[in-house]
Amino acid sequence: MKLNLSVDEALATTRAVRKRMDFDRPVEPEVIRECLEAAVQSPTGSNSQSWQWLVITDQDQRNALAGLYRQGWELYSQMDGNVDTVYKGDDDGRVAQQDRVVKSAQYLAENFEKVPVMMIPLLPGRFEGLPSMAATSMLGSILPGAWSFMIAARERGLGTAWTTIHLMFEEQAAEIIGIDYESYTQCALITCGYSLGTDFQPAKRPPIETVLHWDRWGGEPPWK
C-alpha cells in the first residue's frame, strides 16, 4: 500500500523512526525490493553504479549486529561531551527536541535486534587515507541512493533510521555478515520496519536565513 504523498510531502515528513517502529510486523521482501529499485535510480559519481546493498532479516544476524551496536552505543554515550545534547545553545525548544532524540536513540539501541530489516549500503574499496575529493566522491555515490531508499520506504508506510554506530566495529560486522572488509566499505546501517501510524509532520527547524550564505560566506540572500 502506498500513501500517495507528493514529492514535497515525502521530503518534509521522512523522519528518523525509532520509537514508532513496529517490531512485530514483518516487512514483505517485495516491498524492500521496490525501495531498492528506487535507490538504484540515484546518481553516482562518474556514473559508477558501484553500490551494493545488503539486506538482513535473519534473526541470528540481527542479534549479532545488535550486540555490536549496543557496545558502540555505550562507548558513544561516554565520549567527551557525550550525547546528552548535541545542541549547546540556549533555545529551550531545541534542547527539549534534542533530549527526545537522545531518548529515542537509546530506545533503538536497547531494542536493536527487534528491527525487522537492517539494510547496509556498501561501496567497493576503503575510505582510509583518501584525499577529501575522492572520499566525498565516494559518499556522493551512496548517499543519494540511501536517501532514495528511505523516501521510497516512507511512501510505503515504512519507517527508517540512518545509523552508523556499528561501524565502530566494522571489521567484526563484516565477519558476521560475510563481507570482505578490505574490499568493501559499509557506509551505514539503515533500520527499517513498518511505522506505527504514518502521520509524520515536518520537523521544527531554524529559519533558512540562519544557515544560508549567498554568493560568499555571510552573504545575504536576495529576498532579504
Structure notes:
The chain contains seven helices and five strands, in the order ααβααβααβαββ. It starts with 6 loop residues before the first helix and ends in a 30-residue tail after the last strand. The mean pLDDT is 92. It has one domain: NADH Oxidase. Helix 3 packs antiparallel against helix 7 (170-177). Strands 1, 2, 3, 4 and 5 form a five-stranded antiparallel sheet that branches. Helices cover 38% and strands 12% of the residues. With 224 residues, it is α+β, with helices and mostly antiparallel strands.
Features:
224 residues, alpha+beta, NADH Oxidase, 7 helices
Query: What CATH first level would be assigned?
Result: Alpha Beta
Radius of gyration: 18 Å
CATH fold field value: NADH Oxidase
**Can you identify the CATH superfamily?**
NADH Oxidase
Which percent range fits the helix content? Answer: 25-40%
Q: How many domains make up the coordinates? A: 1
* Number of alpha- plus pi-helical segments: 7
What is the oligomer described by this structure? single chain
Average residue-wise pLDDT: 92
Largest sheet: 5 strands, antiparallel
Beta-strand segment tally: 5
| Anisotropy-based shape | globular
From the N-terminal CA to the C-terminal CA, the straight-line distance is 43 Å
Structural class: alpha+beta
Please tell me the CATH architecture by its name.
3-Layer(aba) Sandwich
Residue share in β-strands: 5-15%
Q: What is the element string, with H for helices and E for strands?
A: HHEHHEHHEHEE
* Spans where pLDDT lies below 50 across 5 or more residues: none
